[in-house]
Specification:
Elements lengths: L3 H26 L6 H24 L2 H4 L2 H21 L2
Helix pairs in contact: 1-2, 1-4, 2-4
């Protein structure tokens, strides 16, 4: 059985990866259009906000839901890291 601390660390790594994957996917799909990083970042903010503050509250059990603000923050940290990488290596 996995303990709560490890479960949360794995979950936050997943949120980070999800946020960064969305930004990088938008950059790749738009062929690195100048506004792609911003659109990717805004897309992560919208999707993560909806998922963490509405979807999870209605459809996830309390055992796995965790802290919505913490989850949202890790999505945005991942999006920020991907945006930085996309800007620096453009």
């Amino acid at each position: 059985m996995i303990d709560d601390k490890t479960f949360n660390q794995v979950a936050q790594a997943g949120h980070f990866a999800g946020g960064s994957a969305i930004v990088l996917a938008v950059v790749v799909v738009t062929h690195e259009h100048a506004w792609a990083v911003l659109w990717g970042f805004l897309l992560v903010a919208a999707l993560a906000g909806f998922k963490e503050f509405w979807w999870d509250e209605h459809y996830e059990t309390a055992e796995v839901r965790g802290n919505g603000l913490e989850d949202f923050t890790f999505y945005m940290i991942g999006a920020s890291a991907a945006a930085l990488v996309a800007i620096l290596f453009r």
